Prior knowledge:
The chain is mainly beta. It has one helix at residues 2-20, and strands spanning 25-28, 32-36, 45-50, 54-60, 64-68, 74-78, 82-83, 87-90, 94-98, 107-112, 116-121, 127-131, 137-141, 145-146.
Amino acid sequence: MQSRIKFLFVLPALLLPAAAWALDFRSISAPKAVLFDAPSAQAKKLFIVGQQYPVEVIVNLGDWVKVRDSRGELAWIEAKQLSAKRSVLVTVPQAEVRESADEASRLVFRAEKDVVLELLDAGSDGWAKVRHRDGLTGYIQLSKVWGL
């Protein structure tokens, strides 16, 4: 019985660090970046991504970082090609960007699927403030983008 009680106290303590982990998103800083299947420039090249494309950091080895893209694909990239500047990727056929974080507010623009938007504020209440590369700024529903 005593070992069972210890288990009940130890289990939450073991799970606490895992709950404290936050998703770490970055964006591509280079105009074009190659993603590899291993942490080496001699590894197999998987694909090329453009500037501001968002990725989720999975493993950081210093010079090389293992990342996940919006499709769930894993690859390695040189750390120097990543930026702390955040961006999001539109995941629906067409997403509306509004003047304020309210569906009834004025429509600023529509963004097509796979368009990258600069993240200005992760926001709250299900909305994020974003900027299009053309300079238009507004709010988009979090459920319509990936990268947060």
